[in-house]
Protein backbone atom coordinates (compact mmCIF):
# COMPACT_ATOMS: atom_id res chain seq x y z
CA UNK A 1 0.00 0.00 0.00
CA UNK A 2 2.89 2.39 0.72
CA UNK A 3 6.65 2.37 1.09
CA UNK A 4 8.52 3.96 3.98
CA UNK A 5 12.11 3.78 5.14
CA UNK A 6 12.62 0.17 6.19
CA UNK A 7 8.88 -0.54 6.43
CA UNK A 8 5.99 -1.16 4.03
CA UNK A 9 2.27 -0.88 4.73
CA UNK A 10 0.31 -3.91 3.48
CA UNK A 11 -3.36 -4.79 3.21
CA UNK A 12 -4.75 -8.30 2.97
CA UNK A 13 -7.87 -10.25 3.70
CA UNK A 14 -8.52 -9.86 7.41
CA UNK A 15 -5.22 -8.12 8.20
CA UNK A 16 -3.67 -4.69 7.60
CA UNK A 17 -0.45 -3.43 9.08
CA UNK A 18 3.23 -2.71 8.52
CA UNK A 19 6.01 -5.22 7.93
CA UNK A 20 9.76 -4.90 7.28
CA UNK A 21 10.56 -4.07 3.66
CA UNK A 22 13.48 -6.50 3.58
CA UNK A 23 12.80 -10.09 2.54
CA UNK A 24 14.85 -12.52 4.60
CA UNK A 25 17.52 -14.19 2.51
CA UNK A 26 17.16 -11.79 -0.43
CA UNK A 27 20.33 -10.75 -2.24
CA UNK A 28 21.13 -7.10 -3.09
CA UNK A 29 20.24 -7.63 -6.75
CA UNK A 30 16.90 -9.31 -5.91
CA UNK A 31 13.61 -7.49 -6.31
CA UNK A 32 12.26 -5.87 -3.18
CA UNK A 33 8.65 -4.86 -2.54
CA UNK A 34 7.39 -1.61 -4.00
CA UNK A 35 3.98 0.01 -3.96
CA UNK A 36 1.46 -1.96 -6.03
CA UNK A 37 3.20 -5.29 -5.48
CA UNK A 38 1.44 -8.48 -4.42
CA UNK A 39 3.44 -9.90 -1.55
CA UNK A 40 3.46 -13.35 0.07
CA UNK A 41 3.56 -13.14 3.88
CA UNK A 42 4.07 -15.92 6.39
CA UNK A 43 4.53 -16.37 10.13
CA UNK A 44 3.24 -14.71 13.26
CA UNK A 45 3.88 -11.83 13.19
CA UNK A 46 3.73 -11.95 9.38
CA UNK A 47 6.93 -11.29 7.49
CA UNK A 48 7.48 -10.88 3.73
CA UNK A 49 8.57 -14.08 2.03
CA UNK A 50 8.38 -13.36 -1.68
CA UNK A 51 7.29 -10.73 -4.20
CA UNK A 52 4.82 -12.37 -6.59
CA UNK A 53 5.33 -12.09 -10.34
CA UNK A 54 4.66 -8.57 -11.66
CA UNK A 55 2.89 -7.72 -14.89
CA UNK A 56 4.92 -4.50 -15.10
CA UNK A 57 7.34 -2.37 -13.10
CA UNK A 58 8.05 1.36 -13.31
CA UNK A 59 11.63 2.26 -12.41
CA UNK A 60 14.16 5.00 -12.94
CA UNK A 61 17.82 5.61 -12.31
CA UNK A 62 18.25 6.62 -8.68
CA UNK A 63 18.81 10.38 -8.24
CA UNK A 64 22.47 11.01 -7.46
CA UNK A 65 23.63 7.49 -8.32
CA UNK A 66 23.11 6.33 -11.93
CA UNK A 67 24.45 2.87 -11.02
CA UNK A 68 21.34 2.17 -8.92
CA UNK A 69 17.73 1.75 -9.97
CA UNK A 70 14.80 3.05 -7.98
CA UNK A 71 11.53 1.16 -8.24
CA UNK A 72 8.53 3.47 -8.57
CA UNK A 73 5.44 1.26 -8.79
CA UNK A 74 4.28 -2.18 -9.96
CA UNK A 75 1.18 -3.76 -11.51
CA UNK A 76 -0.24 -0.54 -12.99
CA UNK A 77 -3.06 -0.64 -15.57
CA UNK A 78 -3.16 3.04 -16.58
CA UNK A 79 -0.82 5.92 -15.87
CA UNK A 80 -2.07 9.51 -15.74
CA UNK A 81 0.73 11.82 -16.93
CA UNK A 82 -0.25 14.97 -15.08
CA UNK A 83 0.90 18.44 -16.17
CA UNK A 84 -0.47 21.88 -15.39
CA UNK A 85 -1.53 24.69 -17.71
CA UNK A 86 0.97 27.25 -16.48
CA UNK A 87 4.64 28.17 -16.88
CA UNK A 88 5.71 24.81 -15.48
CA UNK A 89 4.23 22.98 -18.51
CA UNK A 90 6.96 21.05 -20.32
CA UNK A 91 6.60 18.95 -23.46
CA UNK A 92 10.00 17.38 -22.81
CA UNK A 93 8.91 16.22 -19.36
CA UNK A 94 5.68 14.71 -20.68
CA UNK A 95 7.70 12.88 -23.33
CA UNK A 96 9.95 11.39 -20.66
CA UNK A 97 6.96 10.13 -18.70
CA UNK A 98 5.45 8.77 -21.92
CA UNK A 99 8.66 6.90 -22.77
CA UNK A 100 8.57 5.36 -19.29
CA UNK A 101 4.97 4.20 -19.81
CA UNK A 102 5.66 2.80 -23.29
CA UNK A 103 8.72 0.93 -22.03
CA UNK A 104 6.62 -1.09 -19.56
CA UNK A 105 3.57 -1.39 -21.83
CA UNK A 106 1.12 0.61 -19.71
CA UNK A 107 -1.68 2.73 -21.20
CA UNK A 108 -0.81 6.42 -20.82
CA UNK A 109 -3.29 9.30 -20.60
CA UNK A 110 -2.19 12.94 -20.35
CA UNK A 111 -4.17 14.96 -17.80
CA UNK A 112 -3.77 18.75 -17.99
CA UNK A 113 -4.81 20.46 -14.76
CA UNK A 114 -5.43 24.05 -13.61
CA UNK A 115 -7.44 24.94 -16.73
CA UNK A 116 -9.32 27.42 -14.55
CA UNK A 117 -6.12 29.48 -14.23
CA UNK A 118 -5.52 30.09 -17.95
CA UNK A 119 -7.42 31.82 -20.73
CA UNK A 120 -5.92 29.56 -23.41
CA UNK A 121 -6.12 25.93 -22.26
CA UNK A 122 -6.42 24.83 -25.89
CA UNK A 123 -2.78 25.81 -26.55
CA UNK A 124 -1.58 23.39 -23.87
CA UNK A 125 -3.88 20.65 -25.17
CA UNK A 126 -2.60 21.13 -28.72
CA UNK A 127 1.04 21.01 -27.56
CA UNK A 128 0.46 17.77 -25.67
CA UNK A 129 -1.44 16.10 -28.51
CA UNK A 130 1.35 17.01 -30.94
CA UNK A 131 3.74 14.75 -29.03
CA UNK A 132 2.32 11.60 -30.58
CA UNK A 133 -0.56 10.82 -32.97
CA UNK A 134 -3.55 9.45 -31.10
CA UNK A 135 -2.26 10.42 -27.65
CA UNK A 136 -5.25 10.80 -25.30
CA UNK A 137 -5.23 14.23 -23.62
CA UNK A 138 -7.83 15.53 -21.14
CA UNK A 139 -7.94 19.01 -19.60
CA UNK A 140 -9.65 19.38 -16.22
CA UNK A 141 -10.20 21.57 -13.22
CA UNK A 142 -8.96 19.12 -10.61
CA UNK A 143 -10.97 20.74 -7.81
CA UNK A 144 -14.31 20.34 -9.58
CA UNK A 145 -15.87 16.89 -8.98
CA UNK A 146 -18.19 17.27 -11.97
CA UNK A 147 -15.28 18.14 -14.25
CA UNK A 148 -13.19 15.08 -13.32
CA UNK A 149 -16.01 12.56 -12.87
CA UNK A 150 -15.36 10.98 -16.28
CA UNK A 151 -11.85 9.99 -15.16
CA UNK A 152 -13.46 7.39 -12.90
CA UNK A 153 -14.06 5.34 -16.07
CA UNK A 154 -10.34 4.51 -16.01
CA UNK A 155 -10.57 3.39 -12.37
CA UNK A 156 -13.05 0.52 -12.47
CA UNK A 157 -12.97 -2.62 -10.31
CA UNK A 158 -9.56 -4.24 -10.26
CA UNK A 159 -7.90 -1.31 -12.06
CA UNK A 160 -4.87 0.55 -10.72
CA UNK A 161 -4.20 4.07 -11.98
CA UNK A 162 -0.86 5.73 -11.16
CA UNK A 163 -0.26 9.48 -11.21
CA UNK A 164 3.07 10.73 -12.60
CA UNK A 165 4.05 14.38 -12.72
CA UNK A 166 6.19 17.04 -11.10
CA UNK A 167 5.35 18.67 -7.79
CA UNK A 168 2.53 21.18 -7.79
CA UNK A 169 0.68 19.98 -10.90
CA UNK A 170 -2.32 18.79 -8.86
CA UNK A 171 -1.87 15.02 -8.56
CA UNK A 172 -2.95 14.88 -4.92
CA UNK A 173 -5.83 17.28 -5.61
CA UNK A 174 -7.07 14.94 -8.35
CA UNK A 175 -6.81 11.94 -6.05
CA UNK A 176 -8.74 13.80 -3.35
CA UNK A 177 -11.46 14.81 -5.80
CA UNK A 178 -11.86 11.32 -7.26
CA UNK A 179 -12.03 9.88 -3.75
CA UNK A 180 -14.43 12.64 -2.62
CA UNK A 181 -12.09 13.31 0.26
CA UNK A 182 -9.61 15.98 1.34
CA UNK A 183 -7.49 13.64 3.46
CA UNK A 184 -4.36 14.11 1.32
CA UNK A 185 -2.58 17.39 2.06
CA UNK A 186 -2.04 19.80 -0.83
CA UNK A 187 0.01 22.98 -1.15
CA UNK A 188 -0.19 26.01 -3.45
CA UNK A 189 2.41 26.51 -6.17
CA UNK A 190 4.98 29.30 -6.00
CA UNK A 191 3.71 32.42 -7.76
CA UNK A 192 7.16 33.28 -9.14
CA UNK A 193 7.71 30.26 -11.38
CA UNK A 194 4.57 28.13 -11.13
CA UNK A 195 6.41 25.18 -9.60
CA UNK A 196 5.16 23.27 -6.59
CA UNK A 197 6.43 22.01 -3.29
CA UNK A 198 6.65 18.31 -2.48
CA UNK A 199 3.33 17.46 -0.81
CA UNK A 200 3.27 13.71 -1.42
CA UNK A 201 6.43 12.27 0.14
CA UNK A 202 5.64 8.54 -0.03
CA UNK A 203 4.28 6.32 -2.77
CA UNK A 204 0.83 5.30 -1.63
CA UNK A 205 -2.28 3.49 -2.90
CA UNK A 206 -5.82 4.73 -2.24
CA UNK A 207 -8.98 2.63 -2.60
CA UNK A 208 -11.96 3.94 -4.56
CA UNK A 209 -15.54 3.10 -3.63
CA UNK A 210 -16.16 1.63 -7.10
CA UNK A 211 -13.37 -0.91 -6.61
CA UNK A 212 -10.39 0.72 -8.33
CA UNK A 213 -7.12 1.94 -6.90
CA UNK A 214 -5.31 5.26 -7.24
CA UNK A 215 -1.56 5.33 -6.79
CA UNK A 216 -0.26 8.76 -5.75
CA UNK A 217 3.47 9.25 -6.37
CA UNK A 218 5.82 12.01 -5.19
CA UNK A 219 6.60 14.68 -7.78
CA UNK A 220 9.54 13.91 -10.06
CA UNK A 221 11.00 16.83 -11.99
CA UNK A 222 14.16 14.90 -12.86
CA UNK A 223 13.29 11.56 -14.43
CA UNK A 224 16.43 9.72 -15.47
CA UNK A 225 15.26 6.77 -17.54
CA UNK A 226 16.72 3.31 -17.14
CA UNK A 227 16.98 0.90 -20.10
CA UNK A 228 14.24 2.64 -22.10
CA UNK A 229 15.31 1.81 -25.66
CA UNK A 230 11.95 0.34 -26.66
CA UNK A 231 10.00 3.21 -25.09
CA UNK A 232 12.10 5.85 -26.85
CA UNK A 233 11.71 4.06 -30.19
CA UNK A 234 7.92 3.97 -29.78
CA UNK A 235 7.44 7.59 -28.72
CA UNK A 236 9.88 8.87 -31.36
CA UNK A 237 8.93 6.41 -34.08
CA UNK A 238 8.82 9.22 -36.68
CA UNK A 239 12.56 9.79 -36.20
CA UNK A 240 13.25 6.07 -36.01
CA UNK A 241 11.51 5.56 -39.39
CA UNK A 242 13.36 8.46 -40.98
CA UNK A 243 16.70 7.14 -39.71
CA UNK A 244 16.14 3.86 -41.56
CA UNK A 245 16.49 5.81 -44.84
CA UNK A 246 19.87 7.33 -43.96
CA UNK A 247 22.68 6.49 -46.36
CA UNK A 248 24.82 5.05 -43.58
CA UNK A 249 23.50 2.67 -40.93
CA UNK A 250 25.67 4.33 -38.25
CA UNK A 251 24.60 7.85 -39.23
CA UNK A 252 24.81 10.31 -36.32
CA UNK A 253 22.38 12.69 -38.06
CA UNK A 254 24.92 15.50 -38.06
CA UNK A 255 26.83 16.42 -41.23
CA UNK A 256 26.94 12.97 -42.76
CA UNK A 257 25.92 12.84 -46.45
CA UNK A 258 22.57 11.25 -47.21
CA UNK A 259 21.09 11.82 -43.73
CA UNK A 260 17.34 11.32 -44.06
CA UNK A 261 16.66 12.77 -40.59
CA UNK A 262 18.34 16.08 -41.39
CA UNK A 263 16.56 16.17 -44.74
CA UNK A 264 13.20 15.72 -43.03
CA UNK A 265 14.00 18.55 -40.59
CA UNK A 266 14.94 20.85 -43.47
CA UNK A 267 11.64 20.17 -45.22
CA UNK A 268 9.65 20.70 -42.01
CA UNK A 269 8.45 17.09 -41.82
CA UNK A 270 10.32 16.78 -38.50
CA UNK A 271 11.23 19.53 -36.03
CA UNK A 272 14.64 20.48 -34.68
CA UNK A 273 13.33 20.83 -31.13
CA UNK A 274 11.91 17.33 -31.09
CA UNK A 275 15.13 16.02 -32.70
CA UNK A 276 17.14 17.51 -29.82
CA UNK A 277 14.89 15.86 -27.23
CA UNK A 278 15.15 12.52 -29.06
CA UNK A 279 18.96 12.64 -29.05
CA UNK A 280 19.04 13.65 -25.38
CA UNK A 281 16.91 10.67 -24.38
CA UNK A 282 18.92 8.30 -26.59
CA UNK A 283 22.19 9.54 -25.12
CA UNK A 284 20.90 9.07 -21.59
CA UNK A 285 19.67 5.57 -22.31
CA UNK A 286 22.93 4.48 -23.94
CA UNK A 287 24.84 5.76 -20.89
CA UNK A 288 22.75 3.71 -18.45
CA UNK A 289 24.80 0.97 -16.78
CA UNK A 290 23.66 -2.53 -17.67
CA UNK A 291 22.71 -4.95 -14.87
CA UNK A 292 26.01 -6.79 -15.28
CA UNK A 293 27.93 -3.50 -15.09
CA UNK A 294 26.09 -2.57 -11.90
CA UNK A 295 27.04 -5.88 -10.30
CA UNK A 296 30.70 -5.45 -11.21
CA UNK A 297 30.75 -1.99 -9.64
CA UNK A 298 29.50 -3.16 -6.25
UniProtKB/TrEMBL annotation:
Cofactor remark: Binds 1 zinc ion per subunit.
Q: Mind telling me what this protein is named?
A: Small ribosomal subunit biogenesis GTPase RsgA
GO annotations of cellular component type: cytoplasm
- Matches recorded under InterPro entries: G_CP_dom, P-loop_NTPase, Ribosome_biogen_GTPase_RsgA, RsgA_GTPase_dom
User: What are the recorded GO MF terms, alphabetically?
Assistant: GTP binding; GTPase activity; metal ion binding; rRNA binding
UniProt-annotated binding residues for GTP: 113-116, 165-173
The record lists Zn(2+) as bound by 246, 251, 253, 259
Query: What cofactor does this protein call for?
Result: Zn(2+)
User: An example of a Gene Ontology BP annotation on this entry?
Assistant: ribosomal small subunit biogenesis
Q: What PROSITE patterns is this protein classified in?
A: ENGC_GTPASE, G_CP
The EC designation for this entry is 3.6.1.-
Supply the enzyme class, top level: hydrolase
Q: Which UniProt keywords apply?
A: Cytoplasm, GTP-binding, Hydrolase, Metal-binding, Nucleotide-binding, Ribosome biogenesis, RNA-binding, rRNA-binding, Zinc
State the species of origin: Sphingomonas ginsenosidivorax
Could you describe the subunit structure of this protein? Monomer. Associates with 30S ribosomal subunit, binds 16S rRNA.
As for what it does, the entry says: One of several proteins that assist in the late maturation steps of the functional core of the 30S ribosomal subunit. Helps release RbfA from mature subunits. May play a role in the assembly of ribosomal proteins into the subunit. Circularly permuted GTPase that catalyzes slow GTP hydrolysis, GTPase activity is stimulated by the 30S ribosomal subunit.
Its localization reads: Cytoplasm
Question: What sequence ranges are listed for the domain CP-type G?
Answer: 68-223
What gene, per UniProt, encodes this protein? rsgA
* Primary localization: cytoplasm
Report the sequence similarity comment from the record. Answer: Belongs to the TRAFAC class YlqF/YawG GTPase family. RsgA subfamily.
Q: Outline the extent of the EngC GTPase domain.
A: 74-221
Amino acid sequence: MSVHRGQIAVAGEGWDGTVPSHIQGAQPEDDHPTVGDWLLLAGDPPLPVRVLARKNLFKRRAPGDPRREQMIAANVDTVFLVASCNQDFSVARIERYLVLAREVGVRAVVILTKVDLTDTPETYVAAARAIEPGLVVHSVNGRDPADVAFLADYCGPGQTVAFLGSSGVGKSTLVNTLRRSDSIATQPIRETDGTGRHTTTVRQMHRLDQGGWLLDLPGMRELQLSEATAGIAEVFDDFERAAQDCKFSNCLHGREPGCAVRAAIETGALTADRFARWRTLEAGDSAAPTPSTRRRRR
